[in-house]
Design brief:
The structure is a single chain. By secondary structure, this protein is an alpha/beta fold. The chain has helices at residues 3-11, 23-45, 59-75, 97-116, 132-141, 157-167, 216-220, 228-240, 266-274, 294-302, 319-324, 331-344, 363-376, 403-427; strands spanning 50-55, 78-79, 87-92, 121-126, 147-149, 175-177, 198-202, 204-205, 224-225, 245-249, 281-285, 309-311, 349-356, 380-385, 432-440, 447-452, 457-461, 470-478, 482-487. A six-stranded parallel β-sheet has the order 2-1-3-4-5-6, with helices on both faces. A hairpin with a 6-residue loop joins strand 15 (432-440) and strand 16 (447-452). The longest helix has 25 residues, at 403-427. Bound molecules: S-adenosyl-L-homocysteine, iron/sulfur cluster and FE3-S4 cluster. The site of S-adenosyl-L-homocysteine has 17 residues, from strand 13. This is tRNA-2-methylthio-N(6)-dimethylallyladenosine synthase.
Amino acid sequence: MDYLEIEEKVAKMDITLPPPEPEADRQYYFIRKLQLWMEEKKKELGRPLTACITTFGCQMNARDSEKIIGIMEMIGYEMTDSEEADFVLYNTCTVRENANLKVYGRLGQLKKYKKKNPHMVIALCGCMMQEKVVVDKIKQSYRNVDIIFGTHNIFKLAELLSLKLLDRPESKKMIIDIWDGTTEVVEDLPNERKYSFKSGVNIMFGCNNFCSYCIVPYVRGRERSREPEDIIAEIECMVKDGVVEVMLLGQNVNSYGKTLEHPVSFAQLLERVEKIEGLERIRFMTSHPKDLSDELIEVMAKSQKICKQLHLPLQSGSTRLLKDMNRHYTKEDYLFLVEKIRRAIPDIALTTDIIVGYPGETEQDFEETLDVVRKVEYDSAFTFIYSKRTGTPAAAKEDQVPQNVVKERFDRLLELVQDISAKKTQKDVGTIQQILVEEQNQHDANLMTGRTGRNYLVHFPGNKDLIGKLVSVRLVESKGFYYMGERIEE
Ligand code: SAH
Ligand code: SF4
Ligand code: F3S
């Protein structure tokens, strides 16, 4: 359903009756209740109410925040970047410890705003909230938080807000609603895309891989795929609304569809998405090397729309560590896979994630990682210092690598990765590329910024009318990680 259809349904809700049963309708009912409350409140205050949503973490969270903003805007809140707002929400990430620390720091700072505006509502959601220790700490030390919910029940936001604002406005009691898991995928709730021309699309939720260092399976629950029909319908709707590029999202898109009643492979899903008229570009992430099929490589090679870009997390180049990490591939398997992909799609851009300092990592193990980086020559790589996550098998290991050793290795890896990226960016200078224009350059208003199919950033002289359009640009100069270009009139 598109925004207008949902809006119409919401407007028809009769709030004198008890809330209806089907989950989406139930939420439309609470949105309606809050809309009516909002109208009164606006009159009373003589101003609109504002909401500030901050997102930490990955693309899944970014997409969830679009859903949150969609609900808040439909209720009637005005979005703002200032935390001096009537509603402040942090959509949190817990994949590494520093993501956690940021949230606590920010929460502390909110105290002064809440003092000024006692009716301010503070809400927390996202991956951190799925950890009991976190919720306990907030209950103890951050009493000014009003609402906490998790990753499985984002769709309930209007209901929880209604409970807070309409049913018990004076109560100081925190509303906490965290689910351990869910089999439910609630479709057809409002969402507000950050960009008008590109969007993330969830194709699956959760993760079943339990890599030994990773907390995601614990906070996002078991893997669930959406029905292909629902995915296609959502993308068709977006395309009607101006979207030309989609990013299909899942923790391991290569295992998409295996658990559906009528199983569908990820490659088959891509073939169906490819057929959507008006859609120009398809991207996806993340692709786990262990499940990447020949069928997928074939579909990518012959596709007109799938971008020649693949994010293929390596994590480590040491077969010994990969085994311990529960990744189910060896160094050789990974290199063989890269070779196979490059043979089928020679100009593909490859990116990766690498962890440095996994427990027990020796100099020899680390050298293996450097070796893979040298051999594969990634277009870019995200490098992470291993972070101990409570409850994961790796956290219980005794041979944690000393911090100074990790730091030294991290710097070496980063230097190598950056040298290779800079070299790679030289390669395409002089070529003409199709660019999806995304925004005005933040430092120079005469420049526009866009991305090539291989996901490289390009700045070129142009005007704002080009935003959301695909244009041809000649890459004039490489600046290490991005290009300067000039537009070629077709
Ligand atoms: N599902 C994706 C990754 C999601 S998390 C995949 O399997 O590739 C994104 C990245 O964070 C991971 O690829 C990994 O490199 C990094 N990461 C996850 N847990 C981490 C930890 N405990 N410490 C450091 N980095 C971690
Ligand atoms: Fe984490 Fe591994 Fe799942 Fe990726 S595949 S989210 S790294 S457990
Ligand atoms: Fe972080 Fe959750 Fe994504 S832990 S990386 S926001 S799935």
